[in-house]
Amino acid sequence: MAKKKRTQVRPLSVRPGARYTCFGDGLCCTDIHGLGPLTKKELVQIRRRDPDGAGWDEDFEDRMLFTEPDGGCHFLLPNLYCRIHSEDGPEAKPDGCRRFPLGLVATPEGGRITTHHRCSCRTMGERPVLTAEAALPSLVNAAGRPKADRRVNKVRLERGKKKVAFDEWLEVETEFLDALASGAAPEAVLDAEPFPKLKGSSWEREAEDFIDATDGTSFGVAISTFGEMVRALLDPDHRYRGPGRPWADAFDRAEAREGEDRGEDEVFADWIADEVWGLDFAQTGSWDVCRAELATRLAVGRAVAKHYRETWDLAPGRAAAEALTVVELVGDSEFWEEIEDRIRV
To answer: Which of 111, 154, 172, 337 has CB atoms 3.0–4.6 Å from 163's, for a disulfide?
Structure first.
């Protein structure tokens, strides 16, 4: 029997085509997602700096940074800089703040640097090519060594089947990523039907749960937008009544930077490629379910982007980037984890 390969964080690699640098658009420092969790040590350090800056959050049931009534982090300055960063440098920030939107997954081939796409600095404007050297300072621990967010050495291709060796997965992945990079339509590359059957539930029921989850935060707007659009896609007689765009100012700043507007297909293909490259699905799920859930979020993202273009006269790339913020937020939520467990392909 072949010896099981161990995961490792070196050598570091970046997916070809990935572009990112922080321009300080400020979106990630808001209630568009939870600002945390914090370790006990980080909480002590934050509260020593400002007792009102962090504490136990009942909604998240964890230690978190607090936000102000406008949705911004307690430490977000009027110029959209971080007060902690400005006063003591990036190393003084909590680990989650310092890493976002970057991540690191350890594999038998080395560490893969990943990026989230709910960040206008990642998806819009002129963005330099991401390099391992540029990303490394955000991904190291206190000892200066790269710290992995997760480790993957095998991948399950089909639900209910055994996992395959990483070498076998690489053949599947390479063909998939090459097809995306060639300019093929993302739907064709995914080769999966959106809105698959759900065990013990339905998409109509899940859409209602999304809408009911609205809580006054920017994340609440995103999940309500998603639910309303799912309902509109499944019922032609339903009039879409999605909420506004509390993240619009960050995208205004991104749009003001130099750089051509990317096409809708390019924005969505770039995101799907990173979803696959990041291997988050491989920890508890399977490749067939991953393709089905991505096809579903892509269908919703396309519809939201179309609504944004027609309602607010946005350029195609910007509309797609804002829609992508919605579908990625939902995909990273506990709501979506439950849906992935229910998907039947």
So the answer is: 154
Axis crossing angle, helix 218-234 with helix 287-312, rounded to the nearest 10: 100
pLDDT at 4: 62
DSSP-H helix ranges across 140-263: 166-181, 186-190, 203-212, 218-234, 248-256
Pairing of strands 62-65, 54-57: antiparallel
Please tell me the distance from the alpha carbon of residue 117 to that of residue 288, in angstroms, as a whole number: 22
**Cα(44)–Cα(54) distance, rounded to whole angstroms?**
9
- Cβ within 8 Å of residue 93, ≥6 positions away: 82, 84, 85
In this predicted model, what pLDDT tens digit does every residue of 89-124 receive, in sequence order?
998 999 999 999 999 999 999 999 999 999 999 999
Which residues are CB-contacts of 261 (< 8 A; sequence separation ≥ 6)? 255, 315, 316, 317, 318
Q: What is the DSSP letter of 239?
A: P
- 285/289 Cα distance (integer angstroms): 7
| Burial class of 81 by CB neighbour count within 10 A (0 to 12, 13 to 18, 19+) | middle
> What pTM was estimated for this model as a whole?
0.95
pLDDT at 2: 45
Q: What local confidence, expressed as pLDDT, does residue 319 receive?
A: 97
* DSSP state, residue 29: G
Q: Report how far Cα 121 is from the mean position of its chain's Cα atoms.
A: 13
